[in-house]
Model the fold of this input.
Amino acid sequence: MLSLSSLPIPQVASVLQYNILYSESDDSLPEPLPTVETIEDAPIINKLLSRCIACVGTSYVVKYGYGVEPLEAENMTFVRRYTNIHVPRVYAVYQQSLKAGEHKTYIIMERIAGDSLDKLWDGFDTTQKMDIILLAPQAPVAPSRPLVETCSASELSSLLALVC
Done:
């Protein structure tokens, strides 16, 4: 008779299967890399259609979704390495293949501590506020709605329902 206690218990790191396209060595990480489940359960700080940005733990911000491409992580790494422009450090890139040709990408990057301007504004004097106001027209402005965006069929249906 076979005893259940003699059967090995499988150890599963992640229920969701994904490929690790890039990962820095463990000794250069501020904390262990998050799993896809941890990322999906993390608080979302920004969402635009099929793209999300989430804070994961104390060290990571993750941009993920169907419209996120691994090339974005490569571009960030290039800019960080070859320019003086400060961009977050990319620690890892995961990708899930859901259907033929459909991928969900996760870019795990450095969380940069800081306060948002709306929290700091009241502490500025008039000169500082004017300096910021004069800089504002130079900042790139995102379009009020995406010009081109990938989205799932359910998101497309929701968008069409709003328009029609």
User: Anything to note?
Assistant: The beta strands are 19-23, 44-48, 51-56, 60-65, 90-99, 102-110.
